[in-house]
Specification:
By secondary structure, the chain is α/β, with parallel strands linked by helices. Helices cover about 35% and strands about 10% of the residues. The protein has 15 helices and 12 strands. It has a 7-stranded mixed β-sheet. The protein has a 3-stranded antiparallel β-sheet with strand order 5-11-12. Strand 2, helix 3 and strand 3 form a beta-alpha-beta unit. Helix 6 runs parallel beside helix 14 and helix 8 crosses helix 12. The N terminus is likely disordered.
């Protein structure tokens, strides 16, 4: 998950004058042209300072095969068109009201038409109140699962003295949650453990849902069927820069892994997106070659067969043994994003531009008559400098808007 540190904000503020000089140069001097890749794509702007006209174009449903809701999707129909997929949430009992908010939004805009099951995970047993109140929000089945201790607790090779020392260094750099062992465990679990849970052994697809998120647009097609029927692996809504101080050795460790396993790198990869140094050179420098661009994984619709692949399992094992989930603050967002950018065909990664979404402080807000409650084209309702965290433009530049 992307966290903005105070040093990063200071750097951005000091960079303001440089940004103004750059903009002045672009107005007075020769125009910068950016190459298109593949079919026509919008021009990529320099660092954004507000909503962009490209994001206020009218949005429709994605191209390709779509399956719409029908009576066959009734919750009790065992022969429905539903595939083996679930809505998935890692949530604590104390976050009950927050997950109810998220459920109400997603049920209203989508799942009441398709009745996909919900699967809730916790490192502690769910209370009877949690189970009762969440089940009241949906006609679909709800499953409540306990995370095994060996999936959640730090592995045996992590030295807790080094963890504490590292946490103090990260705190000095104002990295949020640096000394919260549970946060590090959560990032590790979301990166490489959740799909190993026995409750998911027969499940292939998931849509991750966190507490206190909002969904703004009616979606009338089966999102999981769209992914399956159109040969997609991963779907996202928001694409951001990470705090580079939290992941300084993630890319060097990734390069070691690639050197040992060059055959895992897909020929149609997104390496240029991962290593771009033009828009945020300070990020690429601090992160030792990684742009820090990542899919904001609090929303992700994905095929777990990718995480279960030999390439990803070997990659996660390499990172896990390196210790960065605890000695630094490697998040599941950059880990997932780097793996997808290297080991998957980038054409199988889909931007859900038609799904309106908010996880504070960022939005994906389409211009569509099916959307209500957010301002079209808005990335954030926070401070203006947050627009500089938008990395969608690099994705559009190197991959496209599909």
């Amino acid at each position: 998950m992307m966290v903005l540190s105070r040093p990063t904000r200071v750097v951005l503020a000091l960079a303001g004058l440089m940004t103004l000089l750059l903009l002045f140069h672009q107005v007075k001097g020769p125009k910068l042209s950016l190459p298109n890749v593949g079919k026509e794509k919008p021009p990529v702007r320099e660092l954004a300072d507000g909503p962009d006209p490209q994001l206020v174009e009218v949005v429709g449903e994605p191209e390709g095969a779509l399956v719409y809701s029908s009576d066959d999707y009734a919750p009790e129909n065992e022969n429905s068109p539903r595939i083996n997929a679930t809505l998935l949430s890692l949530v604590r009992n104390s976050e009950l009201n927050g997950i109810i908010q998220s459920m109400q939004d997603l049920e209203r805009t989508w799942n009441h038409k398709f009745n996909y099951p919900w699967t809730f995970f916790n490192d502690e047993p769910f209370t009877s109140e949690f189970k009762r109140r969440t089940q009241e929000q949906t006609k679909a089945k709800c499953h409540y699962e306990l995370i095994p201790k060996n999936h959640w607790e730090p592995p045996s090779w992590i030295d807790m003295d080094i963890f504490q020392e590292s946490a103090e260094i990260l705190k000095e750099q104002d990295i949020q949650y640096a000394d919260m062992i549970s946060y590090h465990s959560m990032c590790r679990w979301n990166s490489g453990m959740f799909y190993k849970h026995p409750a998911l052994k027969d499940t292939r697809w998931y849509w991750r849902v966190e507490p206190n998120v909002h969904f703004f647009c009616d979606v009338d097609y089966d999102v999981f069927r769209y992914m399956q029927d159109n040969n997609k692996t991963y779907g996202f809504t928001v694409n951001l820069y990470d705090a580079p101080q939290s992941i300084p050795t993630l890319w060097p460790e990734t390069k070691k892994f690639m050197a040992a396993h060059p055959d895992y790198v897909h020929p149609n990869n997104a390496m240029d997106w991962l290593t771009d140094s033009e828009r945020r050179p300070e990020h690429t420098d601090i992160a030792n070659g990684y742009s820090t661009c990542h899919f904001w994984s609090n929303f992700e619709v994905a095929d777990m067969e990718f995480w279960r692949s030999q390439a990803y399992e070997d990659y996660f094992y390499h990172l896990d043994r390196a210790g960065g989930f605890y000695y630094e603050r490697w998040g599941d967002a950059p880990v997932h994003s780097i793996a997808l950018g290297l080991f998957e065909d980038k054409s199988k990664i889909h931007w859900f531009r038609d799904i309106g979404y908010q996880h504070i402080p960022f939005f994906n807000c389409p211009n569509s008559p099916k959307c209500n409650g957010c301002r079209t084209g808005t990335l954030t309702d926070g401070a203006d400098f947050l627009y500089k965290e938008d990395c969608r433009w690099n994705w559009f530049k190197y991959v496209g808007m599909d």
